[in-house]
């Protein structure tokens, strides 16, 4: 039986030290992406790695998922494989046993994590609106200017290839070309 840790922080510059501090683990998977997305490379790697009898240790429920639907699906998928999920901070373990109390606790704690995420997004939206009113908010700084995009497309490169090479989205290339 392996004890596997999953650590997630929302951005690259955040520190992972406080999560799972002092917990003895056989292997740790760490993602530095938003919990709002299920596109997390290390989460996917961990799901492939764990086997029946293993125990996944996560600092807290909101580190595994910010959506109740995603949380329930992940825990259910892991339990179906015979993998236990332990949330260190909440001192809760989900084993897959047909336990009504476990189901209730997971649903309640997952709903709190989802609510917390919704409140963060709402406050962010309010802050951006106020900043725009004050003329302070100008949006995200462009990583590639429109002239560079236009030059690449003018040299015969397709929109899709230009987006890939400049590491921007296809819609960014399309907007730059439309503005020309």
From TrEMBL:
Keyword Transcription regulation found: no
Keywords, sorted A to Z: DNA integration, DNA recombination, DNA-binding
Keyword match S-adenosyl-L-methionine: no
GO biological process assignments: DNA integration
Active site: 10
GO function terms (MF aspect): DNA binding; DNA strand exchange activity
Pfam assignment, any one: Resolvase
PROSITE patterns according to UniProt: RECOMBINASES_1, RECOMBINASES_2, RECOMBINASES_3
Name assigned to this protein: Recombinase family protein
Domain Resolvase/invertase-type recombinase catalytic: 2-135
Protein family per UniProt: Belongs to the site-specific recombinase resolvase family.
């Amino acid at each position: 039986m392996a004890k596997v840790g999953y650590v997630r922080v929302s951005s690259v510059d955040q520190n992972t030290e406080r999560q799972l501090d002092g917990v003895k683990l056989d292997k740790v998977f760490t993602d530095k992406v938003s919990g709002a997305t299920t596109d997390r490379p290390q989460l996917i790697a961990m799901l492939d790695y764990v086997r029946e009898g293993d125990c996944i240790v996560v600092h807290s429920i909101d580190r595994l998922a910010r959506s109740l639907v995603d949380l329930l699906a992940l825990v259910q998928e892991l339990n179906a494989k015979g993998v236990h999920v332990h949330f260190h901070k909440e001192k809760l373990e989900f084993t897959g046993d047909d336990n009504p109390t476990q189901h209730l606790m997971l649903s309640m704690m997952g709903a709190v994590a989802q609510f917390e995420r919704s409140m963060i997004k709402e406050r962010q939206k309010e802050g951006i609106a106020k900043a725009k009113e004050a003329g302070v908010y100008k949006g995200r700084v462009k990583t590639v200017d429109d002239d560079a995009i236009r030059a690449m497309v003018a040299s015969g490169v397709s929109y899709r290839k230009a987006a890939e090479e400049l590491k921007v989205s296809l819609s960014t290339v399309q907007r730059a070309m439309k503005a020309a």
